[in-house]
Structures are given as structure tokens and as C-alpha cells.
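Reproducibility note. Readers wishing to regenerate the assembly model reported in the main text can use the exact inputs given here. Chain order matters: entities are listed in the order in which they were concatenated for prediction.
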Amino acid sequence: MGKDSKLILDPLTDNNPITIQVLGICSALAITAELEASIVMSISVLFVLGIGNVVISLMRNIIPSKIRIIVQLIVVATLVIIVDLVLKAFAYELSKTLSVFVGLIITNCIIMGRFEAFALGNGPYRSFLDGIGNALGYGVILIIVGFFRELLGSGTLLGIPVLGDPIEKTGLYAIGYENNGFMLLSPMALIVVGIIIWVQRSRNKALIED
Amino acid sequence: MEHIELFFKSIFIDNMVFATFLGMCSYLAVSKKVSTAVGLGAAVIFVLAITVPLNWLLDQYILQPGALSWLGEEYAAYDLSFLSFIMFIATIATMVQLVEIVVEKFSPSLYNSLGIFLPLIAVNCAILGGSLFMQSREIATLGLALNYGVASGIGWFLAILAIAAIREKIRYSNVPPALRGLGITFIITGLMAIGFMSFGGMLTGGDEEAKPATDTEVSEVIMEAIENDETDNKTVVVDDSQSITENLNK
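Running the prediction on these inputs yields the following C-alpha cells for the assembly.
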């Protein structure tokens, strides 16, 4: 039990896919201007990585190692098409916001990285836990970044104003607070992730690089 | 003109790394030394230049709604666009493999410099991203698609070259321990991206995009002026008189 729960808990902190393994950064940065998009993206990755890891793990003994990358890509691409069609059917506006980034889950390095590093060498159950753990670790960072960018950038969370009304000057705005529109621009995602890494490594000195 | 515009737009304004964060993983992983960064950058240009036009043809003649009409009237109603992810990624993976074999056969020296990076590229988001953006921006002709592929590749190349050069130098600086390596690279990339945003007005000269913005700004300013009319006037008068007296004193 201890070993299995480690599979889920490790990627959340000390072996986080984004801040430590440096995988799956592209989408983490591009779509985090709003909290809602970050959450949907995390759930999509959770689905693709959880199921994909199980599928690859079940097939691991029959995939010839020379063509394994193409096999993996086809498995991911199929799962991503399912996600894309579901999003288009039930959350059309959001799928417009995410645009090509849903498709880019295919080449999200987390997925290929976990297939290569874990699912090809472990059984389905453990692969499933590993997939869920890593997707959650990815989601945590996405949601933290999305939370700060939306809160500081437009003063809302999930589209609901939480800091008062900027036009009517209520809440925080009454004492002269202004939204920092800069947070909505893409470069700030990089800087926010940089700061998360800084905080994480300051707290756990073992992670510091030379 | 259209070609030149797309070329510079893809390199500077819609730079793959700084505007859309594509290919970030290999950008961070392979940018420790300039020489390896150049190798990977060249391979990305090469593969983008092949796969984007190829996927354009695929999109135009097979995947788009009605694209199959060249086969005959009865096929005109088909819409295969839901297959585009799987088709694009299969094309890319196959092409990368093919390019690797061809390069190994005909130019061993190029193979030695690109060789190890080619398999990596199949899963580089910049490559698939190039094809997906080509599709979503509805690039009109094959020539423009080729142009777009090459130009975005060059943009990516420039970005990885710049960060690799900075990372080589930053080794001699005294960065806070917890920021060393990954953290500082993120922050530098962020700053570089802010710098690249200033290319935004390059093509329009700041005219086309600036106009509607100024209109709303002006109206906002007027609104505020009306709202704060009485109070503001007084303070302005006070300020003015103060500055006048200051000037006089000087």
C-alpha cells in the first residue's frame, strides 16, 4: 500500500512533472490565463494519461520496441480525439479558448514521458496510479498558475468577480486597487511558474540544481 | 508582399516559443549548450519545412469538409476533419523516421550533427503545433504553408539559440541557489517574451491595431473626466498654481 500511494503522492510534490521533471510545459503556460481553462485542461490530461498508461501497459509485451513511439502516438491521438469531440459537444466556447492546445496534448511530453518511463515496464494497475498521480501533479501547477493569473489579472475566479467591481469601484477597488492586466499576457505565465519553482526549491533544499 | 509579411510575422510576432510556448520541453532540456541548441534548432527548421506543407496538402485534399470532392461527386459530403490529429501526428512520425533514414544514407555528416535530435522531434509540440496552427489559421496556398513552416522554424531556432547563449553566461553569475537551473531559465524566458512582444507593432506600424484601442481609451478618459469633473478641476487648478509658483522660484 505504501508503495502504491507513493505513486500518486510523489508527483504532487517532490517529483512534480512540471517543476522537477520539466515535462508538459507548453500547455501549462499557454492556457492558464483563466482558472476554468486550467481546470478543464487538467481533467483532459488526467483522462488521457490515466487511460493511456493502462492501454500501453497492457500492450507492453506485444509492442516491438522499434516502432513503440508511433504506437504510443496513435494511442494518445485516439484518446485526445475523444476528449476534443466531447469538449466540442458539451463546452463549445471553452474548446474555442483552448483551440489547438487540446490537440497538443498528443505531444505533451508528460504523456510520452510516462509511457516511456513507467507504463512500458509496469503492470496496468500501477501504471494507472502513476498516470493519475502525474496528471494530478500537472493539474496542481496549472490550477495554481491559473488561480493567480485570473485573480491578479482580471479580479475574477472562474468568471465570478471576487475583488469587487472595477467600474463601480466597490470592494478592493474602492481603496485604489487596480487589475494588473500584465498578468493576462503570456510571458507572465513563465514568470509565475519560475516563482513556484523558486518557492518549492527554497523549501526543499534537496531539489536544488548545481 | 504576403509572403514577406507572413515570414516576419511567424518569426517575430507569433514566435513559437515566446508567443505560444510550443516546444517548451526540448527548449528547456536542450538549451544548456549553444552547440547542441544549434543542432536541435536546425533539425526543427528542417522538419517543419517538410511536415507543414505535407499536412497542408493532407488537410486540403483529404480532411477538410468537402475536400474529397476530387474523388467524385458522391464523396463531396464527407467531413473527415475529426481525424486531423491522428493524421497529422502519423505524418510527422513517419516523416521524421523517413528523414532520418534519408539523411543517414546521403549525408552522414549532417546525420551526425542532427542524428540524435531527429527522433526527439517527433514528439516536439512545436512540430505538431505548426501543423495545427496552419490548419486553424487557414493558410491559403502551398507556398504560404511552406513559408510558414520555415519561418516558424527559424523563430524557434532564434529562441533556443538566445536562451542557450544566456544560460552559458549565467553560469558565472551568482543566482540564488533555489533559482539555479530551471527557475532562472523560466524567468529569463518570460523577460525575453516580454521583449518579443514589442515586435507586435512591427507590421502594422502600430496603426491598425492601435486605432480602436485609442478610441475606447479616449471615451474612457472623457467618461472619467465627466464623472470627476468638479473635484478634479479644483485639484488641477491647485496643481497648476503650485507648478507655476515653483517655476517662478526657479
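We highlight two features of this model. The longest strand of chain A covers residues 156-157. Chain A has one domain: 2-203.
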